[in-house]
Protein 1
Amino acid sequence: MKKRLLGVLAIGTALLLLLAGLGFAFPQRFLCVENRDVRADILVVPGGAGGERAKWAAQLFTNGVAPKILLTGAGDYRGHRAILVAAGVPRDVILLEDRSTTTKENAELSAHLLKEQGIKTAIVATSWYHSRRALASFEHFAPDIRFYSCPSHYAYARADWKKAGIGRYVWQEYPKLAGYWLRHGISPF
């Protein structure tokens, strides 16, 4: 019995190491969650990533993907709003959640606001490497809303990571995914 248990443990460990290796070898395939050709009631833009997420949301809005935009995040909403307005997004379609400081808080504090607005469908417009954790967080805190993910592909190619300064953010996503799952019960799958 002990021998069988050790064998199962060895196989489990080998599979876990294989999955980890694949995740690190192909982060775009693991971290990026993308729904193509979707429309929704609102675009949700988590804070962070400089202005890249807001620029992407402005493009999605201009393409008619959603009639409203929710900016979420205490540190970035002013800059993101300025980018949206400069890109032609009317101020009156921009909603704000300006207290959150983490992705978990982005989702948790936005859930009530989205429900209050009668939102049934939402698109999370974030960075490609952040899309799995962001989507899982919003789905966790607002399970009655159908969320989609339409991430920016800014610096998607590994060769562009250094120039864009995102390499460390890509690699930090793995422990953050595990931490959100273990600490908050937010499953990345």
Protein 2
Amino acid sequence: MSTNLTAVLQELLQNTSNLKVLRQLMTPDVTYVSLNFENPELKKVMPWAGTHKCPQALADVFGAIQRFWNTLDFKVTEQGSRVALFGSFTYKSNATGKEITSPFSLLARFEGDKVAYVQFLEDSYGTAGSFKTGGATRFHSDPSGKEVEV
């Protein structure tokens, strides 16, 4: 990956609430995918989840994340040759006070020197769990096993 493109992506991550900078670094029709393409149930817990278009949408997504969590740590641990970043972050829920550390991966596609597509993945189950306030959920994933309660 070009050092230039890496620098652009890192600048974007450092300016997620600065719309002026985002417009300079991204195409006007940039697509941002957070956690999944579209999941109505997850969107009830994390309203930013899903597919978003334009730099303003990215600023809105990160604004929502900052309202829900206080970012305690965000580390990029590796960079790949396909404009990808890998690392971990630690969030603390502003509502419950629970902390979660999650791995993340971020894939970006560029048009020239501007970001045109970003896909961000994390441990959605773990991060959503930082908002859990009580109750149990039952799962039956193993066809030859029993239900489990979490």
Protein 3
Amino acid sequence: MTRPSAWRSVDCLGVANRSLDWFSQAERDLDQAEDSQQAGRHEWACFASHQSAEKAVKALHLHLKQEAWGHVVARLLDELRPRIDVPQHLIEESRVLDGFYISSRYPNSHPEGAPFQHFGPLQSGDAIRYAREVVEFVRHQMA
């Protein structure tokens, strides 16, 4: 799947297709999630998992020559449904990931305590598993 960095596909209008760049970053973000989990930074593992899924789904949108905006992974997946059969469980799991977008980073998203005090191995494990499923779904669709 990885191509030389100088390689870029171009559509009929001469616009570079950056879907592989987005997908490569999604894979790297998933690696970061795993590294953060190993280091006990579960809030960052959750956020990186969300970012991985978001970038993977945006890669698929670009692969299909359509734009995608926003950070709600469940909605981004749902918007693919006219063209791709997206399993409902991926959308449900993405809703869990969407809950990490703000809460894993901002203290005022919780009644008290810093974000790191609200996340542990259970949350980061689920987040990584769900993001991995999204990434693998996208990999299969882009193959």
